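check these tokens.
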Amino acid sequence: MLQSPVEFFRTLPKKVCPECGEKVFEQAESYLMECDRCLSKKEE
């Protein structure tokens, strides 16, 4: 039986930053992998 698309996206695990392990706050059109804190460290 196929799962509905809504149920599929609702059950996806939260994205986790590979640098520090914190959950990443996602926005609809964002493809970033790191959290804001780790991204700001890279800019310094």
Summary: Residues 5-43 form one domain. The radius of gyration is 14 Å. DSSP finds two helices and no strands in the chain.
